[in-house]
Amino acid sequence: MGTENPGRQQFPARPAATPFAAPPQNVMPFSSSGPLVRSESSGFRSTLPAGHQPMMPPSMHMDGSQVSGFRSPPIARFNDPSVPSPPTSSVPATVGPFQRFPTPPFRSTAQVPLSHAPPVGQPLAQPPAPSVSFRTQPQIPLVPMGSPPQSLNSAPPNMNVPYSSPDSTVPAPRPNFQSSFPGHIRLQSNADSQAPPIQSPFSAHQGGYAPAPLPSSSPFLAHPGGYVPPPPVLAPMGLQSRDQMQHFGSGPPIGSIQGLMEDFSSLSIGSVPGSIDPGIDPKALPRPLEGDVEPKLLAEMYPMNCDPRYLRLTTSAIPNSQSLAARWHLPLGAIVCPLAEAPDGDEVPVVNFASTGIIRCRRCRTYVNPFITFTDSGRKWRCSICSLLNDVPGEYFSHLDATGRRLDLDQRPELTKGSVEFVAPTEYMMRPPMPPVYFFLIDVSISAVRSGMIEVVAQTIRSCLDKLPGFPRTQIGFATFDSAIHFYNMKSSLTQPQMMVVSDLDDIFVPLPDDLLVNLSESRNVVETFLDSLPSMFQDNMNVESAFGPALKAAFMVMSQLGGKLLIFQNTLPSLGVGRLKLRVDDLRVYGTDKEHMLRLPEDPFYKQMAAELTKNQISLNAYAFSEKYTDIASLGALAKYTGGQVYYYPSFQSATHGEKLRHELSRDLTRETAWEAVMRIRCGKGVRFTSYHGNFMLRSTDLMALPAVDCDKAYAAQLSLEDTLLTTQTVYFQVALLYTASCGERRIRVHTAAAPVVADLGEMYRQADSGAIVSLLSRLAIEKTLSHKLEDARNSLQLRIVKALKEYRNLYAVQHRLGGRMIYPESLKFLPLYGLAICRSKPLRGGYADAPLDECCSAGYTMMSLPVKKLLKLLYPRLVRLDEYLLKASTQADIKDLEKTLPLAAENLDARGLYLYDDGFRFILWFGRALSPDVAMNLLGADFAAELSKVNLYEHDNEMSRKLMRIIKNFRDSDHSYYQLCHLVRQGEQPRESFLLLSYLLEDQMGGANGYVNWFLQIHRQVQQNA
Amino acid sequence: MELLLWALSFFIDLALMASTFYQLVILTDLEADYINIYDTASRINRIVIPEFIVQGVLCAVFLITWHWFMFLMTVPLACYHVMLFLKRQHLFDVTEAFRFLSAEKKFRMIKLGFYLAVFAIITFRLALSVFNFLSDAEDAVHLF
């Protein structure tokens, strides 16, 4: 039935079954008959629910033990099946019907079809009412599947294992569970995977309490009627012999323990044999050595969801009430990266409705998406978010087939794909779509000239002129400043640019307002001449002042008509005119006091006001800063933060060393696909609401993000909150809509839609958690906290949050299982403690003055606020690989895979004989061990091998090893184009560079006041256990 | 004299209440998306400083006229205003408007309540002094 019909899936089976629950007399006869034929009835009870909704009994059981488990200890843990009431009461109402289902009158009918049931759909032939529950009935067999003798045999050993494991501190049994766990998850995660052969022995003796379906129970519930393909086997139903049933009745204890054990991972702490440390085996700690793993569960449940690269929820199971959400102490929300780069072949399809107009819900303005359903033979559609019935416009009408699918479904990407792009008609334009505009504001004071920045910038811009998006409409303009502001008239009729100097900083005016921003294709020659001569124009400039504020105002005036992208290149602290800043870091006494956070905020309100004005006029600002001295990135960065821009910081820029990085990143900034004058809104179903947004943008109204420019390297985070009422739907839909002007001049709307199940069970929320999204959101919250509190407070509150979450999780399981000395955490969140540590040790949150210059902390803070999940995780837990073995091996490309063996970030993994590469996505560090064979160093560094490595640049030498190394580095760089990783070389024992460059970033080691991984883990464990 | 003072403070307090109420209405409108955030900020920020000054004047008037009780009642708010001004947090921040929206609303709500309380006292004193004035006048008539 509903299997192949996406639309139908939304009509849940459960509500349909509710009528059953209504007649109470159904229950009565049954329970009265119970005592009479106890064995039979109990067996029947335990299996029948399993039959009709195989996931039910476990979930009922789970609910019993999880929800009411600690509140009412005497809960029927392995409840005698004939005592239905306690669990039922704690189960969501909908479960009830199924449990009460076995009524005598029905029983006979139930069993008949069961035993003869053909694979699919057949139950429809039965009395109409039960039909719905019958849909799932085919799954029954998974319980009795295993042949009776087998099950009997397998029971005893299984019984023993789980019993011994929870308490014994011997870690031996644990690996079993852990190793079996992924397998189970995978199997169960497909809601459709029926009784995999492996499970059958298990389930056979455990009956209704089969542990196997347990994890999948809720997804299934939440997704009624979804993917329930015919089960592989049916016939054995007939085997439901009475004694087997009895066996079910007696077997459950194992089942539930087993089932629960599989829900979490645990780590023994306390008495691990052979460990020196205070009882923890460092090797056993979880580490994300494979990088970020996107949760697959949701995508499998809702295959039409948009790809997780666009939208990731912190947990794919949305809680159904505020109280449940409050018990999930982690942030509840989403990370959105609306323009994420799609791999070739998976681009977002563009849909043009032309005359029809874009189809949206009348009431909630949701765009048409794969989750809407068509009714009334195709004349109406029901909005997935607010469930309002809308009319289908005549041009969009299509007949439905027997299953309710539109006949033209294959030609409608908007009805089959979670991500689409609509071409927006004129109603979506406030003004004609703007052309791409680039305006460059370049510092030409003495320090900028000396560093060689101007030259690199001019060359890079010139080389990118051909690749700027939006040809032939692209507009470009330049201004330079020191103590005065220089404008350049680049009218196409000129052969040479004309320079105009404005030195009155108090009353800025723009000379020739029309010719400062020119069409690139018309004025190409003038622009090129200008860029060629720019470096030489100022090479003798001795001016040390910087009139940044006035220059910014002037640039704003030039651009205010059109909007666009403003790139500022700043090499000194702004010292003249409005917005001048002072050296704030001088006063060391501020650190550690309540005023410390002021250092991380813009000093002059001018910067925030200016940022607001820029955003209002659709100008996005990207700040490039180069100084070795304090330039107050906190203030400059605010301009980028509120305009949807980005901060690039190159401390102590020298064109010889950093030139390549600047060249790459600037050209990436100029040439990547950019969405202009954009606004973004996230809509979601009734009962949930996005309440706070985190990232680099400005909110224009409560839920509308103003993004003057967006590109693929920007991600935005939002937090959800629930409204007072209980969520009654089974699914919540989210829709991200980004309305923007493409570089080609077309107005477009990019829409990403996703669905997530609603659950009533905390364990399920943890199981479906996405640690990547959680970490991303947590880091943003922590960074925001540093702007109003001390760093220490920000770190502590982050730690507290993790502890609370793990404690809550522990409470779910620890009590029944007496897991005393173990650290318990959900499999999905096994890296959470480590990433928490990484956030605490990341630059924006790390100690004070001594640890990192303020400017670096601030720029890292601004950067991390906009990083997409994967890049952030890589920055937090960088990759460390050993290279020397690979370099020495005389082989080629094929075994580049060897390099994927990432090492834990601890100094003990650095072998003095090795050569290691550390890669955090922003820089490479090549670490030469002390005992590394001199040949390798000589081959790689040429004649410089003995020199001080801080002065050595890595380039390709004429030998195989060097070529190989460069190939690896290129390979690594190609995996992420958004930043250029400059290669720093460091030799073991070369202090203080080694600790400054690498050792302080090995976050598993203790460093100064900061915790190492083991200590951190123990600390968290201790706190979790306190009054647990 | 007394009558004049209370009449003056009556109108000042009325003005303060009106301004606070106006700001509150604007913030509510912003929340409901009836008004643009830039307009909100410019409208509110335009009257913030005048309001602070008027409130300070009211406080000072009470001090000068030696009304201890009224002075002590209004001085904490005046101090708070000064503190906000010194910390440069008195203006409505456009860039972070929605983050602080509820706090700003709460602050103005409390302020409104405070002004109302002051208003009640002032009205009472005003009525009292009017009564006194009138009865004095009558007494004076009687003297003749």
From TrEMBL, chain A:
Cytoplasm recorded as keyword: yes
Gene Ontology biological-process entries: COPII-coated vesicle cargo loading; intracellular protein transport
UniProt-annotated location(s): Cytoplasm; Golgi apparatus membrane
Domain Zinc finger Sec23/Sec24-type: residue ranges: 358-396
Keywords: Cytoplasm, Golgi apparatus, Protein transport, Transport
Chain spans, region Disordered: 1-53, 190-209
Signal sequence residues: none
GO molecular function: SNARE binding; zinc ion binding
Main location: cytoplasm
Domain Sec23/Sec24 helical: 770-873
Residue ranges of every copy of the Sec23/Sec24 trunk domain listed in the record: 433-669
Domain Sec23/Sec24 beta-sandwich: 675-759
Gelsolin-like domain mapped to chain residues: 900-967
Domain of life, source organism: Eukaryota
Record-stated family: Belongs to the SEC23/SEC24 family. SEC24 subfamily.
Protein's UniProt name: Protein transport protein Sec24-like At3g07100
From TrEMBL, chain B:
Gene Ontology process terms (BP): vesicle-mediated transport
SMART domains, per the entry: Cornichon (SM01398)
Membrane topology type: Multi-pass membrane protein
A GO CC term assigned to this protein in UniProt: membrane
Family label: Belongs to the cornichon family.
Transmembrane segments: 52-80, 112-134
Protein name as it appears in the record: Protein cornichon homolog 1
Major subcellular location class: membrane
UniProt KW keywords: Membrane, Transmembrane, Transmembrane helix
Subcellular location: Membrane
InterPro entries: Cornichon
Pfam families for this protein: Cornichon (PF03311)
